[in-house]
Structure formats: C-alpha cells, structure tokens
Amino acid sequence: MKKFILLFIIVFVTNMVQAKAALTLGVVPQQSASNLAKVWVQLAMFLSKKTGENIRFSTSPDVLEFEKRVAAGTYDIVYLNPYHYTVFSKYIGLQAIARKKTK
C-alpha cells in the first residue's frame, strides 16, 4: 500500500509540474534579441493573463538556428515570415492561427 501511495504522489506531482510548464513563443530573429524582447515579452505576458497559460518569449541567435528549432518542434507557438510558414507548414504541418488583417 505504501508503494501505491508513493507512486500516486509521484505521478500527481509530475502532472502538476507538467501542467505548469511554459509554452514557448518563438520569434524569428529579424532584430536583436533585446529589441524583440521589448515587444514580445509584453505580448507573452498579455497572452498568459488572457489564456491562463504560462507563455514565455524565446528567439534564437540567428535565422538558421531558428529554422532548426522550428523543425525540431522547440517552440509551441511561432511568429515567422510567410516564406518560413510555407516551408514549415509542408515540412512539419505547422498551422496558422492568426495573420495580419490586411493580408
């Protein structure tokens, strides 16, 4: 019985930790990370409040690394340009959830 209770506690705590894990908002590095953070951290915080999910901003040192991370599924949500969307929607099944209103 003690082993069962211990196993239950481990599974429960693991699920709680996983439930609190952050979703990663990956942004293509078109500017310096500090410039991107000025805008995107605020958006991540806004989305976190609106959705109740912990969303954190992330970028990469360069576009090639960003592409590798998108392909590897590192980011849960990504902001990228139309070219990258075209490539990754075919390659990994990326789906758009929002777009610029005028496009």
Please explain how this structure is put together.
It is a single chain. The chain has a single domain, classed as 3-Layer(aba) Sandwich (D-Maltodextrin-Binding Protein, domain 2), CATH 3.40.190.10. It contains four helices and three strands; from the N terminus they run αβαβαβα. The chain has a three-stranded parallel beta sheet with strand order 2-1-3. The protein has helices spanning 2-19, 33-51, 63-72, 82-91, and strands spanning 23-27, 55-58, 77-79. With 103 residues, the protein is mainly alpha-helical.
Rg from alpha-carbon coordinates: 17 Å
Write the CATH homologous superfamily: Periplasmic binding protein-like II
Shape: globular
Largest beta sheet: what is the strand line-up?
2-1-3
Biggest beta sheet summary? 3 strands, parallel
Tally of contiguous helical segments: 4
Within the CATH hierarchy, at the fold level, what is the topology? D-Maltodextrin-Binding Protein, domain 2
| Unreliably modeled segments | 3-17
Kindly state the number of beta strands.
3
Helix content: 55-70%
